[in-house]
């Protein structure tokens, strides 16, 4: 039974009053109102009706008469405790026979009020029972949160490379890892800016109301989150579901996000591989800028025939040159060469003109040849005797020494140095790409290839390690550390720290002390 609303605030205590006399029921409800017991209430005229009520509603307190038609109060109490073991039973009766009391005690009923009801006794019992119920709820909520935090940390560790065997050895004795084997599908959400830092917990709550399937939510960093679906294989159209999520984000938050959905998988051991396939699928967005939903099963497919259109190839090549994306330049030149190869209807002069202009673009955007050097290279193209000679000239000039300063490793090192000096400021793919004059798509791609980490993952890891260092070496308050490592929302910082290290900042500091 869920006794807390979505913000963790205890819901109102619900009490069912059962008596075959309507006046007695109304009298109890009057006392509750008069003495300030703010509760939800229900009524039943006998034990049978009360049992039907209990089968359909969660009830905290069963306040019942003993002698009633159809089913007496003791039998009702016994059945009620079988249906809802945490229910508190208060018997009230005009009979004080010892046998009643003895039977009630054997059932675990500790409260027995005699009719006519003594107001002072009634208030004392209600206050005590209400306090015990709220105390039990609070403890259940704390336990529930501890379990949820442990699950989040285990999932976070698993998708970030901690072997399942290590997790089992470290946590298996303390925590049931069986839930990991129930997952069959994942959806990865990614943004170019710090979306989740600002969207907060409300995002996952709103999403849970939108989607037809239940899911577990794991935030990876301010730009990425994962949705885990249990026992959902072959149960839905994942492309349509992902498209629905994207539309919701557009309408609700006015931003564009990218989504990738996994193939069906089975067992915890396949989660890391499935996650890698999702990341790889989203890499394709750097080649398909107008696509927002990707399938992991298609992540290894080559670009389709749409790229065979020559004008599209030149547009793509121009963008790759501006982005300093050497891989994409090579790739598109090869596609362009393939497109022209065997075109006997084209004049040799036209082909030489096209590729001479292409070489000029390489010089303008990247290699920066001198005017004399460029003239010689263009001349060599016009003196070529075969199409293959032209293609070879282009390839050779892409290896020009002037290109070395544009090596991906240099860009990545520049970004890493910037992060190390400005981790207390807002960092995201867009503003970091401006630092090195690259497109966000290309920077994300080369950073992952050079480091093995996604850029957002690297930023979070750097900030978390800095936060850990400040907790260990200073007496700064958690809110101060939060701001010092670049987080504006302290609740989100605490959540991120707990996911990364498995405990809150305060508890981490206590353990270190």
Features:
4 domains; alpha/beta; five-stranded mixed β-sheet; five-stranded parallel β-sheet; elongated; Rossmann fold; 513 residues; 56% helix
Descriptive report:
This protein is α/β, with parallel strands linked by helices and 513 residues long. The protein folds into four domains: 14-138, Rossmann fold, CATH 3.40.50.2300; 176-298, Reverse transcriptase/Diguanylate cyclase domain (Alpha-Beta Plaits), CATH 3.30.70.270; 305-402, no CATH class; 412-512, Homeodomain-like (Arc Repressor Mutant, subunit A, Orthogonal Bundle). The chain has 22 helices and ten strands. It has helices at residues 22-34, 47-56, 73-83, 98-107, 119-159, 164-171, 195-199, 202-210, 238-253, 271-283, 310-322, 326-340, 348-367, 371-382, 387-397, 408-422, 429-435, 440-451, 455-473, 478-484, 490-501, 505-512, and strands at 14-18, 40-44, 61-65, 88-93, 111-114, 183-190, 216-221, 224-230, 258-261, 293-295. It has a five-stranded parallel beta sheet, with helices on both faces. It has a five-stranded mixed beta sheet with strand order 7-8-6-9-10, sandwiched between helices. Strand 3, helix 3 (73-83) and strand 4 (88-93) form a beta-alpha-beta unit.
User: How would a textbook summarize the main sheet?
Assistant: 5 strands, parallel
Task: Quote the average pLDDT.
Answer: 83
Strand content: 5-15%
Global geometry:
elongated
Low-confidence regions? 1-10, 299-308
Task: Give the strand order, joined by hyphens, for the main sheet.
Answer: 2-1-3-4-5
Q: What is the CATH class name of the largest domain?
A: Alpha Beta
Q: Please give the count of helices.
A: 22
Classify the fold: give the CATH topology of the largest domain.
Answer: Rossmann fold
State the CATH architecture of the largest domain: 3-Layer(aba) Sandwich
- How many individual domains? 4
- The secondary structure category is alpha/beta
